[in-house]
């Protein structure tokens, strides 16, 4: 009488556990990124671009508008569908996953190059 048993059953169970653990870690990382992204604010003044990110007001970036003259917006296909984009300055991304990136770019351009006021 012969008994056949799977030899790798313990290893397969361990592989499934590892895959589920990695999936849980990725889900937690994604959730933290979404929370951090939802706590990011851009403020455009007539002289600078302020970026506040995270829970602490100490996490702020200040960029003078003089140095942002070559800013463009890039949107991937998924960005167009889901309504986000990337602010790019001189070929490198400044901020990813911006909501309403065209509006932000228009506000920046308006601050950089104000329209002359016509007197009638």
Short description:
This protein is α+β, with helices and mostly antiparallel strands. 40% of the residues lie in helices and 27% in strands. The strands form 2 sheets. The protein has a 3-stranded antiparallel β-sheet. Strands 4-5-6 form a 3-stranded antiparallel β-sheet.
3D structure, described in words:
The protein has 120 residues and is of the alpha+beta class. It has helices at residues 9-38, 77-82, 101-112; strands at 41-44, 48-52, 60-64, 71-74, 84-89, 92-99. The longest helix is centred in the first third of the chain and has 30 residues, at 9-38. The model has no long low-confidence stretch (mean pLDDT 76).
Main beta-sheet strand count, sense and barrel state: 3 strands, antiparallel
Tell me the number of strands: 6
Task: Tell me the radius of gyration.
Answer: 24 Å
Unreliable stretches covering 5 or more consecutive residues: none
- Order of SSEs, N→C? HEEEEHEEH
Q: Outline, from the CA principal axes? A: elongated
Beta percentage is 25-35%
Spatial strand arrangement across the major sheet: 1-2-3
Q: Assign the structural class, choosing from mainly alpha, mainly beta, alpha/beta, alpha+beta, or little secondary structure.
A: alpha+beta
Question: Which descriptors would you attach to this protein?
Answer:
single chain; 120 residues; 3 helices; 6 strands; 40% helix
Layout of secondary structure:
Elements: H1 9-38, E1 41-44, E2 48-52, E3 60-64, E4 71-74, H2 77-82, E5 84-89, E6 92-99, H3 101-112
Antiparallel strand pairs: 1-2, 2-3, 4-5, 5-6
């Amino acid at each position: 009488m012969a008994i056949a048993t799977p030899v790798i059953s313990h290893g397969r169970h361990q592989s499934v556990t590892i895959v589920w653990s990695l999936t849980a870690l990725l889900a937690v990382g994604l959730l933290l990124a979404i929370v951090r992204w939802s706590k990011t604010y851009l403020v455009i003044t007539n002289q600078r671009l302020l970026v506040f990110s995270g829970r602490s007001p100490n996490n702020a970036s200040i960029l003078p508008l003089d140095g942002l003259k070559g800013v463009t917006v890039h949107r991937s296909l998924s960005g167009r569908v889901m309504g986000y984009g990337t602010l790019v300055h001189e070929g490198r991304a400044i901020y990813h996953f911006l909501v309403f990136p065209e509006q932000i770019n228009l506000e920046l351009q308006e601050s950089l190059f104000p329209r002359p006021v016509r007197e009638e």
